[in-house]
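Project outcomes to date are best conveyed with an example. Our students and postdoctoral researchers have been running inverse folding experiments weekly, and each run begins with a structure described purely in tokens. The record below, which covers 336 residues, was selected by the lab manager from last quarter's runs and is presented without edits.
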């Protein structure tokens, strides 16, 4: 999509990311037949390179899109509404759709555009199967991708040398966004995607599969509970004795009650792999919670520095798209 009109490309990528309020292109663009066909092919057509949008979302966007196209047309002899768009909307209207409450509970594929890696020859993106509810029925927040993971991903895309050729450990992997990014696009030698939730770990193979990483040696999913000893009675060395070069984590400091356990695990990792780089993206939703994280780090002998990488204003983002309302800190931890 790099060669498309920027407004059209932005709209398409926002739809594929299931943005509730995508930015529709201007009317003079929408009424053009070529633009309508491009939107249809990119967003609504059955395409082996994309995944279908949820039916309720697809119908809502199609209704609004066709309405805006009709409003933009001044001469119906010169312009019209794409037959493909009309046919797609008609097909959705012809059969019952799942109730809104039911649809909200279903997992769905979400496509994230990696704008910092895009070029004219390749549309870089990550597709993830997610639960769009904030908290799943199993009580975990790890089945959707959060803003801090998207922002950390942009930070790493801006400087791939941070993980290229290195062994990466991700804490609180959730949907696996950062693990997929590092393994598929940023050249990491190996990635261990860890989470304390068994439900989250069991869902990771689906996301590795859809991104072409199933069965590869580049990514390993593993359960890791913070605060627990990394080496148990059944193994002499953690991770088979292999060192880790980089630890990444995103949105893992939101609960003050688990911060001591998290920092305790970081302390163990530093002892096992001296010189390890630790990067954590923390969304500051609550200042007291964030300061609790800083305080525990200080007490455990870590200095916390901030990387200069502010969140772009929403209207300047080209993908992935995420909220610019709360600051997201890229924290670099070092042993004192």
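After processing, the design step wrote out the following sequence:
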């Amino acid at each position: 999509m790099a060669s498309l009109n920027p407004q059209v490309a932005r709209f398409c990528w926002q739809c594929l990311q299931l943005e509730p309020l995508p930015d529709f292109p201007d009317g003079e663009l929408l009424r053009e037949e070529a633009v309508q066909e491009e939107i249809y092919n990119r967003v609504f057509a059955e395409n082996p390179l994309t995944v279908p949008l949820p039916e309720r979302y697809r119908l809502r966007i199609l209704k609004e899109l066709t309405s805006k196209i009709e409003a933009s047309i001044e001469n119906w002899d010169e312009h019209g509404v794409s037959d493909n768009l009309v046919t797609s909307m008609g097909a959705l209207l012809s059969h019952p759709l799942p109730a809104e409450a039911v649809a909200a509970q279903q997992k769905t594929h979400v496509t994230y555009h990696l704008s910092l890696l895009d070029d004219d020859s390749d549309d870089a993106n990550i597709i993830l199967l997610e639960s769009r509810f904030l908290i799943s029925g199993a009580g975990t927040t790890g089945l959707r991708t959060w803003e801090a993971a998207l922002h950390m991903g942009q930070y790493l895309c801006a400087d791939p040398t941070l993980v290229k050729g290195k062994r990466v450990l991700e804490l609180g992997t959730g949907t696996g966004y950062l693990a997929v990014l590092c393994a598929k696009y940023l050249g990491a030698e190996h990635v261990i995607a860890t989470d304390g939730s068994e439900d989250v770990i069991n869902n990771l193979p689906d996301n590795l599969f859809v991104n072409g990483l199933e069965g590869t040696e580049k990514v390993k999913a593993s359960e890791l509970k913070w605060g627990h000893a990394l080496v148990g009675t059944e193994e002499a060395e953690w991770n088979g004795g292999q060192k880790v070069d980089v630890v990444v984590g995103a949105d893992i400091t939101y609960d003050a009650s688990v911060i001591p356990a998290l920092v305790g695990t970081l302390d163990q990792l530093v002892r096992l792999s001296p010189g390890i780089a630790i990067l954590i993206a923390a969304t500051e939703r609550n200042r007291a919670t964030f300061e609790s994280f800083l305080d525990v780090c200080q007490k455990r002998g870590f200095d916390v520095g901030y990387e200069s990488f502010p969140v772009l204003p929403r209207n300047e983002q080209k993908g992935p798209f995420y909220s610019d309302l709360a600051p997201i800190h890229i924290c670099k931890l070092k042993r004192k």
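The chain is about 35% helix and 15% strand. Strands lie at 107-113, 125-131, 167-171, 190-195, 219-223, 246-250, 277-283, 302-307, 328-335. The training component of this project remains on track.
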